[in-house]
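Figure 6 in text form: structure in, sequence out.
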């Protein structure tokens, strides 16, 4: 079968690999009908995440049809349409029983202290072969898949594999409640779903910071207030828009590949630019840019710095943008002086996703507007390259096998 395979920083290929099989009694095999490319996947190719194992199949979002199940998978059978969670969880450990499935004690082959196990990630997360393939093996399938109702299409469901749950989880981490004014940093697809989730959880206003015009236009279409950080200083602007109080909550939907302003009043001074350069050298020491391809973000902690500055005293910050373990810079002093609450982490997909499936199935929310590109798996590498270059209009890339 065909699959997108990581061979090195700046080196991914569409390979022919062996078809998956049921290995453990808790496994299922799923024929993929939709997959997708996520900004997180780009971290691995840019070299801004923990070491990868060569030969790992990439991707952590998929929808498909079950073709085989192990003896201990009792809730699914061949022919079921399913959405696969991005994170793998056993369903039996203490954390899974509390709904904190991102920190499952069992799923990660590296042991209970290794953290989240997810598809197509670094060695520290398993590694577990990912979902940008024609077929996949799903470990702990009983807790790592959800059956789909007929009223949810494959296109809707692919956004329920990771992006919508992660945006929702970000709003929960930020403690969004009725009447809140919320800032969202990053208007990529995770940011778009963070906007939608903040409004649905009660926010009265959402202010979105980015610089890519097509993404800002999508945010505006959701009735968010937009700030282009290449044209104005987001800290000064948000202070003005909130009467000097700041926002109640912030969602960081950017992560380690953040970029600073290239010009305008928010452009960093020489000292700050040097700090950012040192951060890039720390988090991406083996980066392998090829012209304008696979270039790490030039300001890894920019979104975090702005988040602390714009949030009100006693405010709340939810971080869903991905940061590697090598990121060690954070304005703790300023955050402490403002009595901030900061929560972060990977989405607890198994417990977050089911209500969102119901929301889509009932027609209350249609996520498909955020899919901007549809590519066959044969064009996956070219799609990666265009998405990596942050080309205008490329918000979410759907990959169709076969």
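Output sequence:
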């Amino acid at each position: 079968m065909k699959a997108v395979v990581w061979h090195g920083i700046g080196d991914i290929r569409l390979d022919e690999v062996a078809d998956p099989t049921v290995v453990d009694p808790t496994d299922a095999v799923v024929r993929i009908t939709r997959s997708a490319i996520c900004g997180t996947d780009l971290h691995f190719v840019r070299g801004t995440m923990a070491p990868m194992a060569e030969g790992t199949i990439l991707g952590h979002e998929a929808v498909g049809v079950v073709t085989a199940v192990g003896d201990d998978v009792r809730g699914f059978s061949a022919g079921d349409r399913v959405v696969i969670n991005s994170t793998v969880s056993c369903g039996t450990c203490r954390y899974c029983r509390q709904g904190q499935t991102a920190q499952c004690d069992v799923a990660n082959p590296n042991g209970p202290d290794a953290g989240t196990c997810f598809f197509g990630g670094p060695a520290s997360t398993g590694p577990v072969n990912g979902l940008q393939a024609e077929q996949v093996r799903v470990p702990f399938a009983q807790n790592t898949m959800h059956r789909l109702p007929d009223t949810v299409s494959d296109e809707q469901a692919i956004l329920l594999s990771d992006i919508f749950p992660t945006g929702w989880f970000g709003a929960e981490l930020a403690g969004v409640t009725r009447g809140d004014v919320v800032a969202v940093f990053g208007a990529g697809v995770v940011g778009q779903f963070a906007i939608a989730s903040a409004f649905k959880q009660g926010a009265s206003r959402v202010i979105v910071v980015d610089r890519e015009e097509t993404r800002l236009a999508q945010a505006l279409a959701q009735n968010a207030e937009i700030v282009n950080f290449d044209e104005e200083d987001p800290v000064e602007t948000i202070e003005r828009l909130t009467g000097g109080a700041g926002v109640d909550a912030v969602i960081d939907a950017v992560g380690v590949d953040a970029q600073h302003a290239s010009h305008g009043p928010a452009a960093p001074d020489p000292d700050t630019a040097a700090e950012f350069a040192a951060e890039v050298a720390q988090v991406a020491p083996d980066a392998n840019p090829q012209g304008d391809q696979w270039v790490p973000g030039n300001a890894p902690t920019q979104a975090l710095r702005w988040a602390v500055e714009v949030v009100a005293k006693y405010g709340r910050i939810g971080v869903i943008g991905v940061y590697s373990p090598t990121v060690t810079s954070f304005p703790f002093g300023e955050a402490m002086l403002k009595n901030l609450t900061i929560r972060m982490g990977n989405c607890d997909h198994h417990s977050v996703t089911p209500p969102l499936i119901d929301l889509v199935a009932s027609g209350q929310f249609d996520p498909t507007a955020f899919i901007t590109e549809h590519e066959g798996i044969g064009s996956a590498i070219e799609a990666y390259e265009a998405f990596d270059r942050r080309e205008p209009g490329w918000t979410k890339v759907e990959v169709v096998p076969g």
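Caption detail: The chain has a mean pLDDT of 96.
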